[in-house]
């Protein structure tokens, strides 16, 4: 069974739903992003703080499989597992499941890189912070 | 050279940009969706009208390659080419380019299906409307 | 001292912040709306469910005083007190405060009405549900 | 008759509509903001550029009267007239009307101030740029 590095509980807000009465597709990217940024927080890192130091986490590819829609007031869990690919890429395996029954809502694979002053740099500076709190990132 | 079925010009709005000063990743999905929905309009179809008849266009998979970010006030073009896959799937090849220099911003492949009262149906009802205005959808 | 009928704790998400590094003005309306809708839930009511019965809660006026901005990761509280005005109007006195120090962020007064199949109706149908759980709405 | 300083044509995007099938209240603030920022552009000013110089335009109060909802694909016009109040305040009288019949959708009064490195400054630096292109701001 896959083991996740981080899990965040969230709840659908009505304004995130569109004419079809279900969460709009783009908002799942917001949920996934919020989960990744909160994961950074666990290692005393934060997106805005990194940006102010000239370091930006940038998504270069997103694959999302929409399995089942979330509806108003649904409680859900956003999970992630982080890995490395080559020298520069961070791979986030993510999933969103409905809380009450673990029904799979979205499965996603997000590829990110770090840039410093606009140029790609090794994600080691992030990795070290996570290693300190006992999280390792396998090559994937 | 790939030929597109539809092209829409848009402009970045400041509120679509985040702390990094660039368009937030989720908003590109909004741009791509808006382009698909406007494409429906060219065949006298519309997303809200279809929904009221019980017909929903649903995205089941999205692949997005983020090549270069859009910035405040950038003018850009969103393009699509539509194809079919098997009996049920509609495939939208999409790209976003910066208007001034055709710089590639996002390349996307969106897979959708039609549902009627919640059950998958053939997209023929849409296809026929497009055929009437001279647009054909190749098997991909 | 003003006593509130309902309070909701929330946290700023990075994508809600704009180029200035603070929460975009429009998002405070989202926070205030989410609080009102969650308040409905406490009386076994919900916005989407009401809509499906032809009953829509509609905002007709919003006054917002922006006192101080929220920043990434800030925890905050959204509060509301509900009253009536005349035969048709519901008045929501709302405020957003930063959690750590009760710093006032936004003060808002939102006026809403109920419509049934598009025509204004008395909010009594909502009020009764709240009365049952011990919440009364003073004339304001 | 009131004369406006600026008018911007826009079109409703489906994702801006919520469960009720109409544009979500918060999005009108986005429309109004986009109109104000585009107005800045007419005087060779821009929101992001100002921010990079340490100058931020900040909304301190918004009053919005929601008269009639916009629906999917509606074309609409956003207008503004700018005035001054006292030494520091800029007042934006704004309205949104449906294009086809000038039906009033939203009437708004937005109060803003300029800050430089976080402290309020006179809006004269903006005003001068507008004066150069023949736009004057009356005391209101």
C-alpha Rg of chain A (nearest Å): 16 Å
Task: State the major sheet of chain A.
Answer: 6 strands, antiparallel
* Class from secondary-structure proportions of chain A: alpha+beta
Multimeric status of the protein:
homotetramer
Uncertain spans of chain A, ≥5 residues at pLDDT below 50?
Answer: none
Mean pLDDT of chain A: 94
Largest interface: A-B, 23 and 23 residues
Our estimate of the beta-strand percent of chain A is 35-45%
Architecture overview:
4 copies of one chain form a homotetramer. Chain A is α+β, with helices and mostly antiparallel strands. Helix content of chain A is 24%, strand content 39%. In chain A, strands 1, 2, 3, 4, 5 and 6 form a 6-stranded antiparallel sheet that branches. In chain A, a hairpin with a 5-residue loop joins strand 4 (89-98) and strand 5. The longest helix of chain A is centred in the N-terminal third of the chain and has 18 residues, at 25-42. The interface between A and B is medium-sized, with 23 and 23 residues. Strand 2 (55-66) of chain A pairs antiparallel with strand 2 (55-66) of chain B.
Helix-strand blueprint:
Four copies of one chain form a homotetramer.
Chain A: E1 6-11, H1 25-42, H2 47-52, E2 55-66, E3 75-85, E4 89-98, E5 104-116, E6 119-121, H3 124-132
Antiparallel strand pairs in A: 1-3, 2-5, 3-4, 4-5, 5-6
Keywords summarizing the entry:
homotetramer; 140 residues; alpha+beta; 6-stranded antiparallel sheet; 6 strands; 24% helix
